[in-house]
Input
Amino acid sequence: MLLIRGGRVIDTEKREEKQADVVIKDGRILGIGDFTDDGSYEQVIEARGWVVAPGLVDVHVHFRDPGLTYKEDIHTGAAAAAAGGFTTVVCMANTKPVVDNREILEYVMEEGKKTGIHVLAAAAVSLGMKGRELTDMEGLKAAGACGFTDDGIPLMDGELLRQAFEQAAVLEVPVSLHEEDPGFIRQNGIHHGKAAEQMGLYGSPAVAEDSLVARDCMIALHTGAKVNIQHISSRGGLEAVRLAKKMGAKVTAEVTPHHFTLTEDAVLQYGTLAKMNPPLRTEEDRQALIRGLQDGTIDMIATDHAPHSREEKSRGFTEAPSGIIGLETSLALGVTQLVDKGYLTMAELMAKMSLNPARLYGLECGRMAEGAVADLVIFDPEESFTVETFHSKADNSPFRGWNLKGKVHYTICGGNVVYRSSCG
Ligand code: DOR
Ligand code: ZN
Output
C-alpha cells in the first residue's frame, strides 16, 4: 500500500480540488480522505503543497518506432512521457513502415506493454497514408487499434474520408485529422504572415487549415462519427469546430502547448525549432485558442511530441523537418501559461490533460476517485525549473533554457512508481 499525504487532490469530473490523503492498493485508489500513517504502508509520499492528479493522457505522440528509431523509440518515448507526468499516450501511425497492417500495429502494442505506461496505437486511415485506399479498419480495430489517423498528411479525398467516418462510427472509434490543405501551402511549417515575409517565404496560410476543418466538421456531422481535430492552430478552424459542436457533430479538438504559448515570431528567434505543421500563427490566433480552451471548444491539450535529430533540425529552414518534442514540457507550459496567468483553474487544466483525452478513447483513467485506476501524477505547481535535458532521444524544443513552473515529482501507473524526480 502507498500513502500520498496532504496533497491538492484534483477531481477532474467536478473541476474541484481539496486537500486530502490518497491511499493506493493493488493498482487502484483505495481511498481519498484522512488517513494516518500507522506504519502499514510500504511507501509514504509527503505531498503537502503538491498537486495530486490523474496521470496525464496524451492523444498525440510520435515515437518513431519502427523505422525511425534514431529519432526516438517506444522505450525512450515512454520514458519521456513518464517524466512529463503521462501515464497514457496514443502513438501516431506515421512510422516506417506505416501502421496500416496488423503486424506493425502488434509490434507497437507489444513494445508498448514493456514500458510501464499505457502505450496505445492508432492505425492509419489510408494504406501507406497515401490517401487513396482505406485500411482494413475493422481488422485493425479488432487487433487493438484505438483509433485511426493519417496525422502528418492531410486526407484530401472527402468521399474517402466520409467512408472512413461511416466505418469508424460503426466501430465506435475516433478518427483524428491533420487539417492543412496542401493546395494553399507553398512552404509548410511557417505561417503565411509577417515572419514568413521577413524570411522571403510564402508559408502556410490559415485558410489551408480553416477550409479543411470546416469540410471535415460537416462530414462528421453527416456521418455521426467521432472526429478529433488535431493540433488546432487558427481562429477560423476553432470557429468551425464551435459551429459543428453547436450543430451536434461529435467533434473534439486538441491544441498543443506550443500553439497556446508561441506565435509566428518564434520562427525568427528559434529557427527550425519553431517549424511545425500546422505552423505557429498570430497573437490573435493564440488568444483565440486560449478562449477556446476556456469555453470548452477545445477539449484537450495534446503535445504532438515529434522528435527529430539534431542533424535534421540543423538543416536550412526549408529542408528541416517539422515538429518539436513536447512530453517533458507540456504540463509546465500549461501551469505557467494557463493556470498562473489565470486563464484556467488547475482542475480545468488537469481535465484537459487527462479526463477529456481519456474520454475520447473511452478509457477509464483520468479520474481521481475511490476504485479508479491508480494512474497519477504528483507535481509541485510552484517549483520552477530550467528546461535543459530530456529523457527523449531528441532535444528539438524551442523551450530549452526556459524557466517554467510545475515540476513533476512522481508519476504512478497502475499503482507503480514509473518516474521519480531526483529531488522527489
Ligand atoms: O510538425 C509536425 N510534425 N506535425 C505533424 O503533424 C507531424 C509531425 C511529425 O511527424 O514530425
Ligand atoms: Zn502529429
Residues 60, 62, 92, 151-152, 304, 306 surround zinc ion (ligand 2) (CB under 6 Å).
